Amino acid sequence: MLxxxxxxxxxxxxxxxxxxxxxxxxxxxxxxxxxxNAATTQKPQAVLDALLQYYSGENANVHxxxxxxxxxxxxxxxxxxxxxxxxxxxxxxxxxIFTRNATEAINLVAxxxxxxxxxxxxxxxxxxxxxxxxxxxxxxICERQRARLRVAxxxxxGELDLERLDALIGPRTRIVAVTHLSNALGTxxxxxxxxxxxxxxxxxxxxxxxxxxxHLKVDVRDLDCDFYAATGHKLYGPTGIGVLYGRHALxxxxxxYQGGGDMISSVTFEKTTYNVPPYKFEAGTPHIAGAVGLGxxxxxxxxxxxxxxxxxxxxxxxxxxxxxxxxxxLRIIGTASGKASILSFVMDGIHPHDIGTIxxxxxxxxxxxxxxxxxVMERFGVPAxxxxxxxxxxxREDLDALARALDKVREVFA
Length: 414
Known about the structure:
- There is one protein chain.
- Helix 3 (about 70-90) crosses helix 10 (about 290-305) and helix 4 (about 100-115) packs parallel to helix 5 (about 135-145).
- The chain is α/β, with parallel strands linked by helices.
- A hairpin with a 3-residue loop joins strand 1 (about 25) and strand 2.
- Residues about 1-5 have low confidence and may be disordered.
- The strands form five sheets. Strands 4-10-9-8-7-5-6 form a seven-stranded mixed sheet, with helices on both faces. It has a four-stranded antiparallel sheet with strand order 13-14-17-16, with helices on one face.
- It contains 14 helices and 17 strands.
């Protein structure tokens, strides 16, 4: 395993050796080419070892046991919270809430901060490039509170129209909720600038970091956001674990999301008093092993080096873009000047599902469909796209394999 980040270029062969699944074959002996990382990433041995170590040596429930195993499990769980705090550069552990995923993190904010701050006529501002998980929760709370959802448009390149966004943020705006990195287009939004725009009008800011957190260095204090949602399984960690960063003063003032054990200070039939953040928002037994695995994952990312990962992936994106642009009849969806990791495309006369099926026979795993971003598909006038997405372990040879597989697609439909 890599243990120290240096200024040298990423040693991708060494990284790949840390991911056991990448050595397997698929479809009758073809080497696996995994380019579906925007859906979920593969897991390094360090994460697999952490899960095994937890379940084989420390498994117990947390926070309310006095025996040794419970103390060990609690220590491992809270150590993971500290690692995530450092990863996001939050000010205190009390600002790090473990959730099931980024979707639950956004729903938590919508159902607590939203319910508390949105009334009739209040407004939520999102963008045209959001994942459904940053649309539907706001639609639900707006309907319940008789508030209004406003949507900032994007350009033909997939870039956010900042002037239109600025015009939408007004005195009735209570929160601006924006993706940091689009899962369908790869666009990187200028979220620090957006946070400043929103705060100037007194609105809070939520950033959906589901895609950004494993490609970009995230510093929530520098971004000056109020909430940041991320998911563990895209950070090379386990499924079923996510994170919500929330500014402490806001978390203190927000009501709980769910009721149950661990989120209370005392309970009588007459009255319940609630625990302090983050525990106020973590009702019931949490995904302890998931948190431990996520802690191992962020350790691994930091050991490889986030700057080196970003540089490696930027080189791959440029190379892959050049390859795809040479394929007749192929059109890339999402050509923002600032983008990362995503190659979303369509081919003349060929449905994306057929593209995905044929390249899979060549051992290349990509994603096809609307990517839980149907408004983006509508914006570009397509029902779906094929999407290749990158991670730290991908290589130029992976992208060459994709290009060869796309030649097969053209042969089949010639």
